[in-house]
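Email to the structure team, subject: TP53-regulated inhibitor of apoptosis 1 model.

Hi all, the expression group asked for a predicted structure before they design truncation constructs. Nothing fancy, just the tokens so they can compare against earlier work. One-line instruction: predict TP53-regulated inhibitor of apoptosis 1, return tokens.
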Amino acid sequence: MESIGKECTELKREYDQCFNVWFAEKFLKGDHRSSMCDKIFTLYQNCVRDAIKRQNIDLLQLDKDVLGSNDEQKPPPNSQQENQQQQNKTS
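Reply from the structure team: attached below.
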């Protein structure tokens, strides 16, 4: 999969490779330190942030915590039919 910015795709591939090695050879064997890929991750993250800015996407909106807040979108209420089906299951 390509990155949001084409110029970031190679950095993404490098990070993905590093992460996969770290996960298989370190994390799954109990070494949970993540510093192995920090440098490439920072380069990739900065590249993606620059690409996002060029597309006029507000970075503050991306960094905003929404889950569990009043801004989180809730699923629509169940339809009457779904409510009846659930009630029938519990009866």
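The helical segments are 9-25, 38-54, 59-63, 80-90. The mean pLDDT is 84. Ping us if the truncation boundaries need rechecking.
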